[in-house]
Design a protein that fits this description.
Keywords: Repressor, Stress response, Transcription, Transcription regulation
Number of strands: 10
Organism: Aliiruegeria haliotis
Distance between the termini: 42 Å
Number of domains: 3
Structural class: alpha+beta
Largest sheet: 5 strands, antiparallel
Strand content: 15-25%
CATH architecture of the largest domain: 2-Layer Sandwich
GO molecular function: DNA binding
Order of helices and strands: HHHHEEHHHEEEEHHHEHHEEEH
Family: Belongs to the HrcA family.
InterPro entries: GAF-like_dom_sf, HrcA, HrcA_C, WH-like_DNA-bd_sf, WH_DNA-bd_sf, WHTH_transcript_rep_HrcA_IDD
Length: 354
């Protein structure tokens, strides 16, 4: 039994109700909840002084905190964790949310990145916070590869797969690359790629480059390695993480310190740090998982909550993850079923395509 479960088990009914109502009030309004407010909502008639005594006990246990001397209480991270684990009432997905998600993700484009972007937009729209979608690796054989120069420091690599799907990603080529090195790199890859998956191609390239160093110049060789690294999962540096709904976390009137934390979060996202860990967070089994504050080891934004769920392919293998990130004051009871349904929906769509 966890510490939180032990504490909850030892609390009497009055303490448990005061705690639950403080957390629910805070999640609803974002404001501290005072004793006088609770006297109007408690199931039994008790005085404000009695409630204040209970609050002090809960504060001593580390479950509540007083942001100001004379203000009400708010839950601590430990308190939120205990509430989520032991007292959270998860609602059924309502019809409006279900219909919105179904409508926004319907479509038939072959590009998997288009599907993932639509899913992210639908999830962000339904929850009004930022969404995160970790796209699955594409395991179909490759049909054709092409590099397109966008600028001196930006290039596009396009992959056409044997199943008709097309994926493209922007990457930073090595300094000094030329149009001829782009063509040479593409020709080199296409001579090796047909019938191979990305993982197989990468292994073969490592062998071929070492064997044919005299046949391809150094810039093209670097370009090959840099372009293919876009899909490799080494160091979590790929572009498989799709983020939507950033503006939902940048509301007008937000406190400067909150904006700073949000910018820190998105700096982390844009660096794509530890992307592999995002999927590892879900590897302990099916279902939605909630990470609160500093429990969220993927990002440095300690004042956030991450609600994620894995999704599976037709073989019941975890291939990606989907979720939302926002302030710790999330409507968990509503968001959990939305994330859960989105993961199931995405899993069905991935299975249908395969």
């Amino acid at each position: 039994m966890s510490d939180s479960a032990r504490i909850l088990d030892q609390m009497n009914e009055r303490s448990r109700e005061v705690f639950r109502r403080v957390v629910e009030g805070y999640l609803s309004s974002g404001d501290p909840v005072g004793s006088r407010t609770l006297t109007r909502t408690m199931s039994e008639k008790v005085s404000a002084a009695t409630i204040r005594n209970v609050m002090q006990d809960l504060e001593y246990l580390g479950l509540l905190d007083s942001p100001h001397v004379s203000a009400g209480r708010i839950p601590t991270q430990q308190g939120l964790r205990m509430f989520v684990d032991g007292l959270l009432e998860v609602r059924d997905l309502n019809t409006d949310d279900r219909e919105r998600l179904d409508a926004m993700v319907s479509g038939s484009e072959a590009d998997i990145s288009g599907l993932m972007t639509r899913v992210g937009s639908a999830l962000s729209g339904a929850t009004q916070v930022a969404s995160l979608v970790l796209a699955p690796k594409h395991e179909a054989p490759i049909k054709h590869i092409e590099f397109v120069q966008l600028a001196a420091d930006r290039a596009l690599v396009v992959l056409v797969f044997a199943d008709g799907q097309v994926e493209n990603r922007v990457f930073t080529p090595p300094p000094g690359q030329t149009p001829s090195s782009l063509r040479e790199a593409a020709n080199f890859l296409n001579s090796l790629a047909e019938g191979l998956t990305i993982a197989e191609l990468r292994r073969k390239i490592s062998t071929e480059i070492s064997q044919r160093r005299q046949e391809i110049d150094s810039l093209a060789r670097d370009l090959v390695e840099g372009g293919l690294a876009t899909w490799a999962d080494e160091g979590g540096s790929n572009e498989r993480l799709i983020v939507r709904g950033r503006a939902n976390l940048l509301e007008e009137g937000a406190a400067p310190e909150d904006l700073d934390r949000i910018r820190t979060l998105f700096d982390d996202l844009e660096r794509k740090r530890d992307i592999a860990e995002f999927l590892e967070l879900t590897d302990e089994g099916e279902g939605v998982r909630i990470f609160i504050g500093s429990e969220n080891k993927l990002f440095s934004l300690s004042g956030s909550s991450l609600v994620i769920s894995p999704y599976m392919n037709a073989d019941r293998k975890i291939v990606g993850a989907v979720g939302v990130i926002g302030p710790t004051r999330l409507n968990y009871g509503r968001i959990v079923p939305i994330v859960d349904y989105t993961a199931q929906l995405l899993g069905r769509m991935i299975s249908d395509r395969s």
